[in-house]
Design brief:
The protein has 186 residues and is α/β, with parallel strands linked by helices. It contains eight helices and five strands. Helix content is 42%, strand content 19%. One of its GO terms (cellular component) is cytosol. Pfam families: RNase_T.
Amino acid sequence: MKFIALDVETANSDCGSICQVGIATFEENAISDTWETLVNPRDYFSSFNISIHGINRGQVLEAPTFEEIFCVLEDKLKDQVVLHHTAFDKRALSRAAQKYGLELFQARWLDTAKVVRRTWQKYAVRGYSLKNVARELGISFNHHDALEDAIAAGKIMVHVLEESGLSLDHWLDLVDKPRKKRRFTV
């Protein structure tokens, strides 16, 4: 089954200040396509955010704005299964769309952090950060690069699918349901 992993980086504490987008498409549990771009958020860069991802204002001056890449995002993500690790990336897309008066497209969103928490008991309460889970699964990547983070989230989902034996559709249904009892698959 096909799914697309998404990650964004932001210029400051406003989650709509997207300055980088990374997308990795997975088909049959392997990467089939990638896309990434820097984005000019038309906003200030906080020193804190720069210290996390290393992207600064000078690097994005000639980059497209969110408005300019929105049609590409819509083309790649609309009506697809889109993975993100924690709610931040989905919230950032929604906030950026709102900021520019754009309507966010429909997709089947799946938070891999929630999937990880329901798959492995040791991550039920804490330790389910992208960096930590990737390290535990032997996935090496350059953390806080949007494409690298998207690829890592996708690879984590591949591990979940292979270890749990459950389908992507099952996970989409399971994560949407409220949690009653702790239920782990592995």
